[in-house]
Amino acid sequence: MKAAARHPGYSLLAILLVAVGIGPLLTYGLSSVSELVITELAISEAQFGLIATVCFGAGAIGNAVFGRFTDRQPDSRLLVLVFALASMALVLAMIPGGYVLLLVASGCAGLAQSFPNGVTNRILAQRVPADRRIGWIGIKQSGVQVSQLVASLGFPALAAWIGWRGASGVGAVVAILLGVIALRVLSAVPLLPPTPISVDSAASGLPTAAPTSIRFTIWALAAFGFINGMGVQATNIYLSLYAVRELNFSLVLGGAAAAVAGAIGVAARVGWGRMMSRGMAAPPLLLLLATLALAGAGVFLAAGAIHSAALLWLAVAMHGASALGVSVVLMAAVVRGVPSSSMGMASGMVSAGQFGGFTIGPLVMGTIVGSPGGFTLGWTVVAGIYALSVMLGLYLVLRRRRRIRAA
């Protein structure tokens, strides 16, 4: 038992990754077959964007409201909630009940994303040795992009065979099986012996151990997540549709574009997580990612302007490497700077910021895409959003430098 506590197996890491990724499966799946969903349900682009808005709105509310609840519940119960809600969402999407039922399914998928960051961060803090935690955060946070990769490839392929509702049914079965496996794996990994936890300001990247500074850290990370989140999901939700409509990609190839973004996002989150584990501070890394995301939005705009598939693939790569990597930096900063007893609250607040951005981004993008401005105006707005994140990142870097000099 002691050896297991010192060296939890990679099966634990795998179930952490799956717990983070199972909630977004429906949203990414629907996005990859957006043209089919829009046509079958006879809805507008803005109405399609509302599906994602409902999902992420439910996630934002859930993360904000259930943070303290997460701190009081056992890990196993929270995992049951995550997988049960994700399965329910996929089952509801499978039922041909029209647009309203699909909104309900999307809301369930959002609620499924209210708990994973809090419970997985706490599992890391309480069951994984300190020298492995930050590196594991990079991997487990890539679960969202693994979900994007799997859904963007799987849904279009299954939709060609059994329809997009059938693809949702397959996803529900997979979610249930993965939930059972997750509970079995978790039960085999014991808690580490309790140790005093201190806030290491140099490691956290937002220096100081003062409670007021911890609160600032949480709010600053939540604000950055909110701004970045608007750009992330405005891009993710409409990437496949953009490729199909503006660059004449096939449905499968449009899904592949989103899948490539997800695959690069997986590698990016692992890579940025490793940089954090080697002592990289959060503010300069957030500034770098925001700058790259801003450049990527410009490339998306250029791809449509000159109808260049090559530029689209470049933009997809830049999006995956930058904006999709922000979450691991935010969560690593939380795990470094917050006691495990408050991990659910802190993770919930930062996640609520991200989901707030996720909520607004698709709705705004959908409204713009359906307007005369189309995707040209849409990518311009996305670039403006990332410009705001650059400014916030720069402020955090300068603030950190001032505090280091003062110390």
Could you characterize what this model shows?
The protein has 407 residues and is mostly helical. It has a single domain (2-406), classed as Growth Hormone, Chain: A (Up-down Bundle), CATH 1.20.1250. Helices cover 84% and strands 0% of the residues. The protein has 19 helices and no strands. It has helices spanning 2-6, 10-22, 25-32, 34-41, 45-65, 67-72, 75-94, 99-112, 116-127, 130-141, 143-187, 201-204, 211-246, 251-277, 282-306, 309-321, 326-337, 343-369, 374-406. Helix 7 (75-94) packs antiparallel against helix 9 and helix 14 (251-277) packs parallel to helix 17. The chain is globular, with a radius of gyration of 20 Å. The model is unreliable at 1-6 and 197-210 (pLDDT under 50).
CATH topology: Growth Hormone, Chain: A
* Shape call: globular
Overall tally of domains: 1
The ordered string of helix (H) and strand (E) elements is HHHHHHHHHHHHHHHHHHH
Beta-strand residue fraction = under 5%
What is this structure's SSE topology?
Layout: H1 2-6, H2 10-22, H3 25-32, H4 34-41, H5 45-65, H6 67-72, H7 75-94, H8 99-112, H9 116-127, H10 130-141, H11 143-187, H12 201-204, H13 211-246, H14 251-277, H15 282-306, H16 309-321, H17 326-337, H18 343-369, H19 374-406
Helix pairs in contact: 2-10, 2-11, 3-11, 3-13, 5-8, 5-18, 7-8, 7-9, 7-11, 9-10, 9-18, 10-14, 10-17, 11-14, 13-14, 13-17, 13-18, 13-19, 14-16, 14-17, 15-16, 15-17, 15-19, 17-18, 18-19
Task: Describe, in short, the structure shown.
It is found in: Cell membrane. The chain has 407 residues and is an all-alpha fold.
